## 1
Amino acid sequence: MSENENQFEELLRRLGLDSLPTYQQIFESMDPLSWTLVLLLSGAVLLGVFFTLNTRYRFHAFQEAEATPEILLARLKQDPTYLTPASIVNRLGADTTLLLLEHGDQITAPQWRSMWNRVREELLGLLSSQHAFGPIYALAHYYQSTDTQEPDSMRIRRTALIHKLGQRRHLEPGADGMAAQLRLVRHPAEQLGELGFDGPTVWLESHEETMPIQGPIVQMDWVRFETVDRASVNLLIQRTPTVGGNFSIQMEKRNEMWVVVGEQVNWAS
């Protein structure tokens, strides 16, 4: 052990490190310029530490604020593509996503609609894919079909109408200004009710009953029940005499609420 110590001391001696100056010697040897440089260096280090800690704190606080559902909802109301639909549902939750859906449907600006339609469709699909009470209840509120005392056929019809047209339930008038019309093919045993369509509503007693097409129309067949918890309904949305689409919407009853679980589309032009 002593041999190793001797070798270490010999190494220090050769490097000139065996006689390091004391703090007192260092202080006595420093001139005003040296002290100025030391003070500047110390100040720079302290400022660097201060700004590093301050920036990290502010950035962390900003991230915490931005992560709140309220802030995210406000951003999404300005730009619905700010987050992916999956991130919207995960970070907002079902209840706040419902607020975004209700807000988005009320805006009619073309630029907004071009962004919103795809986001809305994916949000509805993500919520309907979940079987938890929260998403189901949020969808039922969005479709305005939470009244379990209302006949199932009316709740299904309203759900289908809002699913395709949004909460406004509005179809743009024709080029001649003719308002859109909702036509409902009624099952003989079906009770009539109000669906909230933005325009005239006509009930037809059968498929054979015909009316001349004047302006855009939404025509809905009677509701077909596969079981007490599964049903489907067909819609025709015709914007002009030559442009429109047929939709078959499948629904499932969960926690006494009807949820859209599938859709088949056949565009015609």
## 2
Amino acid sequence: MSPEDLGKMISITSTALFEKIAPCFASWSSRTTDGQKSTEVTSVPGGANLSAIVLQQAKLAVEEIHQANVAQANLLLEREKWERTDVPAHFESRVLSKFLPDGHELEDGSTSGEDQQQQGKGRRYLVLPEDQGSFLVVPAGLGILELMAVYLDVARALPQLATDAAVRLTSMLRLANGQIEKLLLEGQAVSSGSRKTVTATNLALTYQTIDMMSSVLPLVANTLESVAGSKGGPGIRIVLEDLLYRLKAEMSEHKGNLMRKLGDILVERFDHHCAKWLSAEKASRAGQRTGPNENVLKIVNDVSSMHRVLMKSLSPKCVELIFSRVFVDFGSRFEARLLKEKDKVDDTTVLESWRTSILADLGQMVVKLRPIADIRARMEACVKEMLSVTDRILPPKDGEPPSGDILQLLDQAGDGPKSTSSSEEEAPADASTTPPAAAPAAAPAAGD
């Protein structure tokens, strides 16, 4: 969706805000004045009754705005391609300033990560106020922030309805969080036709979007509490507890699922290549092979390509957590495959040459992946486990050193090449969530 289309959609809600809420002020004011005059003459508190009527009308207007926001959020998410976009100029002053209590201003250094001359242009990162982080954004993410700002406008216009606005804001965000999960993790984006496939880049940007929504919740809660003031009573505190704890926990779970999905892409591809690498059929030809195993090189390429893609969109800590789980799964899949294929071979000579070939392949894997410093320790622990598994399933001959000596020899020889390229052909920069067997060619990177 283009920025122009997004602006048109958001303007619908802004118009509804002024058309439905503003008249309530005039009505409320005039009826309260009339009610006060009635009280002075008859001693009957008519103003209270009139105010209650107007308050009920305002609640109906807030509900209409909420329904319009939910419809817009659904449409934004259904049309989203999950590709990165620049942050529009002045987005912070126009939208994010509303996420701060009245009297608070955005600090000069918090609204941009770029130089002053870049202020008139779109920027790569959205920087949230109050040191809540910086994020890559997609159009739907920006749109949801604008819709959140509408609820804060309603709360400021009618402080008596701050609790109602908070309840509906929480509801809208919960619905959006659930819809995003269905679209990206359950495959509805593909089945609906909005995307042909979901790539690692799409999932990483989805993670950024959910993380951004979660990170802005403390700002929203602080502003709503400030607007409601002491008149908010226990109701506003209950709603804000739901916003800050339950909804935030739901979003944290969603982020965890996205991280697991990103790891699953790599594990599925490892399974695909490992089935060809550790096959009994190829074991009989292991002694005739010259040069690195092509399937091992494909594993290396997948790892280095995924690392490159994720580092463009996620924090180093997040990438490290993803690869920690991936390498543990690599070790268990390696063991299961080797056990299965070993039972198909009964020739001792073939098993010996196969063992030698596998050890050489694992050494090659270490050499190729060592230059990626932030996953090196996890990778070497994984390879060490694979070497131990190889010793157990394909024991060395009497007098032959254990396979663990390979790592020591590589340490003595140095860290290997300084480039992460593991073959003359560059691997694709992204990977599809479709298993390799169904889609052997990775989908092109999206968003960057």
